[in-house]
Amino acid sequence: MRFKKSVLTGALALSTLVGATAAFAAPASYTVSGNDTMWLISKKYGMSLTSLIQANPQVANPNIIWPGMKLNLPGTSAAPSTSNTGTTTGSTGSTVQPGTGSTATTSTSAFASQVVTLVNQERAKAGLAPLTSDSALTGMALDKAKDMYNNHYFDHTSPTYGSPFDMMTSYGIRFTYAGENIAMGQRTPQEVMTAWMNSAGHRQNILSPNYTKIGVAYYNGEWVQEFIAN
């Protein structure tokens, strides 16, 4: 088992990114396929992750989408889709396992929710305010976990997204303080929390009074916590 931390603090000014992009008219809806995530779809059509999530209130958990699901694209007149296939039950949903092309029920969302609960239990013991689970931050955490798994690395700097700062900025997430904890190989939420709490740096992120929001993800043995204050 390995785990790694980084404490990222400071105020960053958001800058406008200018580049050459192809102009095209976005369709009213999009059918999820392959290993799509909300973030990948938002980038494909040149929109923010937050706007895509807000345009799809019918999606119970933005971190769990599957092939065949219909998504509304912001800026169109499409009504919310009611023809999605697949099911979500409680905090467990259907997702595509890499390389299988079929759906399977996983504990991805349930594990993430349990970690948030455990984090706030530890903060309560320390007399700290609870962190609020943030959907955009959670979506980013899941994409980071998938990226580590699919690209066979374990590091805060992603070959796809860059640093956690870079990734947050590209997702349209604003922050004054930010931090990330990652881990790999732990089998349960309690096991990964025990590992993090036994590490001074990871514990510092979990118990920092500076943070107000959290996003947690688990994917095929990869664990990610993202923290921000804004």
From TrEMBL:
The keyword Signal applies. The keyword Signal applies. Residues 1-25 form the signal peptide. It comes from Paenibacillus cremeus. Residues 28-73 form the LysM domain. Keywords: Signal. Residues 76-106 are annotated as: Disordered. InterPro entries: CAP_dom, CAP_sf, LysM, LysM_dom_sf. CDD domains: CAP_bacterial, LysM. The lineage of its organism: Bacteria, Bacillati, Bacillota, Bacilli, Bacillales. This is LysM peptidoglycan-binding domain-containing protein. It comes from the Bacteria. PROSITE patterns: LYSM.
